[in-house]
Amino acid sequence: MLTQTIARLAAWACLAFIIFVTVGPIGLRPADLLPVNWDRALAFALMAALFVVAYPGYAFSCGTLIIAAAGAFELLQLLSPSRHAHFDDAVVKAAGAVLGFLTGWTVNRARDLIIALT
User: Fold this and answer.
1) The whole model's pTM is what?
2) Could you tell me which residues come within 8 angstroms of residue 25 by beta carbon, excluding any fewer than 6 positions away?
3) pLDDT in tens, the chain (118 residues)
4) Are 18 and 40 in contact (CB under 8 A)?
5) Which of 108, 97, 83, 90 lies closest to 42 in space, CA to CA?
6) Residues 6+ apart with CB under 8 A from 78
7) Separation between Cα atoms, residue 32 and residue 20, nearest integer Å
8) Contact 27/82 with Cβ under 8 angstroms?
9) Cys bridge to 48: 91, 97, 98, 111, which one at CB 3.0-4.6 A?
10) How far apart are the C-alpha atoms of 87 and 11, rounded to whole Å?
């Protein structure tokens, strides 16, 4: 159960960070070495995987909500004068969410298989 608690804390922290980076001023966005589309996709993949692992009974709901959040977060950028919403960015984020969902689902299935074999 400790692992699930850690996964839940990490998932919610990841969500808060992504909201801040997506909606906050562009000047506060952390810099890294990856191309921006990789950042977007990997952030949403990580968040989706964490939520699916943290809430295995709600995996499909988590996946669906995070894919929808990709578009919603992009629309929130319309509220900031220094940010611009783009459909392509939402698609990249949603693709990352799908990848994360599949990763989290695979982790859950593997965990269930290991538990069943022991």
Assistant:
1) 0.89
2) 80, 82, 83
3) 678 899 999 999 999 999 888 877 777 777 778 888 899 999 999 999 999 999 999 999 999 999 999 999 888 887 777 777 788 989 999 999 999 999 999 999 999 999 899 8
4) no
5) 97
6) 85
7) 16
8) yes
9) 97
10) 25
